[in-house]
Amino acid sequence: MKMNLDDYIELVECYKKVALTGPPKSGKTTLANEIKDRPIVHTDDYMHLSWKDQALVPCAETAKLDTFLIEGIQVPRILRKGLEIQIVICLGESIEPLNTRQIGVAKSVRTVLTEWSRSSLGESVPIVYLKQAISIPSL
Q1: What would the pLDDT profile of 50-106 be if each residue is shown by its tens digit?
Q2: Cβ within 8 Å of residue 81, ≥6 positions away
Q3: What is the DSSP string of 83-121?
């Protein structure tokens, strides 16, 4: 699906609990920061925690919120931990070239998201896959 910035903002505003994920360097944080009507949870802010807590802590913190957007490469892992979400937006391509480690992370994001979507936790949640990056106009 091809989408511009206004389409993306309109889509997010239709849902209270939104997850935004995709491969490294695909523009997740940049797009998340364009949303002004709710708290934004950046999973990168939890990278200093243990592997287990990188998923559990943001899951627990967002569970207290009525409306939010959670973004990052950890989102599929957090969804597997039971985070209740109404829609997932998955960015498809990186904007910049990836190194070998980042390519592995990109594959993991897609694999875990696919597994979650086929589970009882994710089977009824829509996933919008965006193949191309959304350009953000500069000021």
Answers
A1: 999 999 999 999 999 999 999 999 999 999 999 999 999 999 888 889 999 999 999
A2: 55, 56, 59
A3: ---SEEEEE-S-SS---HHHHHHHHHHHHHHHHHHTSTT
Q: Which residue has the tokens 């925690």?
A: 49
Q: What are the backbone angles phi and psi of residue 47, rounded to the nearest 5°?
A: -65, -20
- Per the CB < 8 A criterion, the answer to whether 92 and 22 are in contact is yes
Question: What is the chain's mean pLDDT, rounded?
Answer: 92
Q: Is the CATH number of domain 5-130 3.40.50?
A: yes
d(CA 73, CA 28) in angstroms, rounded, equals 9
Q: How confident is the model at residue 136 (pLDDT cuts 50, 70, 90)?
A: low
Helix (H) / strand (E) containing 75 = helix 75-80
